[in-house]
Amino acid sequence: MLKKIGILGFGIVGKSYLKFFLKLHANLEIGIWDKRQLEDFELKLIKDLNVKIFNPNQRKIQDFLNQYDYIAISPGFSFENFQIYKKKIICELDLFSKSFTGKSIAITGTLGKTTITNLLNLALKKIFKISVCYGGNIGLPMLNIILQQQQIDYSILELSSFQLELNKNFAPDIAIWTNFYSNHIDRHKNIKSYFWAKSKIFKFQNKNQYLIVSASFLKEKLFLQQLNSIKSQIYFVEDVPEKELKEQFIKLKKKYSNIVFIDKHRFNLNFSILPDITFEQNWLFVLTVLKILKLDFNVLRRYLETCFNNYFQEHRLEYFATINGIDFYNDSKATVVQATLNAMRKLEKKNKPIILILGGISKGVDRSFLLKELNNFKRLKKIFCLSKKNKEFVGVKTYPSFKELFGDIMQIAKPGDQVLFSPSGASFDFFENYKHRGEIFKKFVLNSYKKG
To answer: Cβ of 441: how many Cβ atoms within 10 Å?
Structure first.
């Protein structure tokens, strides 16, 4: 039984920890430490609940960590700094694992996890009328889901590597790992550590559970090294057709009985009816889940043909305006190079000139190769960069704000052009998060053209 517990960080996750402990556990002494200055409403909440608060300007974090039996750590804190407290540290995923009694679907990946989470939530809830709740990295904090679990059949969790790295127990009934590219090296120090953090999504699964991964993992050495230890049923999804991947699967199938290869031909569905709101590979992951759950694709087909056309994914290649014949797309969710390249591929199919806006923070990833990749796009008209400094995109003019940037864009943009804001970097140079960045971009475009 927990007696003294400290909550490290009092953001969204920290508040969910507090609510969870107070609701489900009695006789606890709870303390909170956060490096930032808490807001007045947060201080009032803590005072009203008779919880102890540590002033970071007066008490060292080590004093806080030493005082408590267990430390509930928020994902924003790097575990590397607290190795000597390893036995004390608990994470929200392990608490969720012990307390949630329903079925769970978990999604991770460098790209696509938010889109797939939203599409699954919509499909299960709206189309198949299944009681679901989604959370984790988006939506509700996962511990808040526990407090309403009596009304839930499935939880759908989007999970970052920060949330997964401390996982010691959580094993989703269906795990989805969309893809793997270099990212968050500033936190994980190297790509191998980033991979091991992500792989916690399937590490504790059993033979009655499922792992859905991109077929590209068939040539990922770090993944193939683990095949012997994976107990769950593995579905390799052919998100990008490659003959070599199919050949590699056939070789592995002779050795492993728990693997399946999935491509678009395995579904009794005309893919042309899928709304053009995301990439086909994201739909393949969603459809694979529906197939595993043995849901009726006729129900899905009827819904797609009648009700689905108004759905879109905000901040992920979001078309939001055509002004003076120029189409504008907000792809602020593109925080890695691969997301920007995917967006470019999709827009180039429209056969219109593209004006691209890059920017953001690299998160320790080398982005210098992006310009070489962009040279392969025949419809690329011009590249701009919104950034405080630009050492990676050599030869690309850099702007400190949208105001200066759009002054030049509006000089060259013509009817029939597409303006794509797809930064390929994190948003924390100028903005609170990618949503804030996308909203500011959209507002500036609409306001600029109203005035001009």
So the answer is: 26
Classified by CATH at the fold level, domain 94-310 comes out as UDP-N-acetylmuramoyl-L-alanine:D-glutamate ligase (3.40.1190)
Q: Judging by beta carbons within 10 Å of its beta carbon (0-12, 13-18, 19+), is residue 81 exposed, middle or buried?
A: exposed
Q: Which of 20, 9, 5, 17 is nearest to 61 (CA)?
A: 9
Distance in angstroms (rounded) separating the CA atoms of residues 279 and 113:
12
- The sheet with strand 132-136 has its strands ordered as 132-136, 154-158, 103-108, 174-177, 210-214, 233-237, 259-262
Q: Are 308 and 126 in contact (CB under 8 A)?
A: no
The domain limits of the chain are: 4-90, 94-310, 318-451
Domain 318-451 adopts which CATH fold? Protein-Tyrosine Phosphatase; Chain A (3.90.190)
Rounded to whole angstroms, the Cα distance separating 434 from 423 reads: 10
pLDDT in tens, the chain (452 residues): 558 899 998 988 999 999 999 887 667 889 998 888 888 888 888 888 888 888 777 778 888 889 999 999 988 777 677 778 888 888 899 999 999 999 999 999 988 888 899 889 989 998 999 999 999 888 889 999 998 898 899 999 999 888 998 899 999 999 999 988 766 666 657 888 888 989 999 999 999 999 999 999 998 899 999 999 999 999 999 877 788 888 899 999 999 999 999 998 888 888 877 776 677 888 999 999 999 999 999 898 888 776 654 445 678 888 888 888 899 999 998 888 888 998 999 899 899 999 999 998 887 778 888 998 999 999 999 999 998 877 788 889 999 888 888 889 988 999 999 999 999 988 888 888 888 999 999 998 988 765 44
Q: What's this model's pTM, rounded to 2 decimal places?
A: 0.71
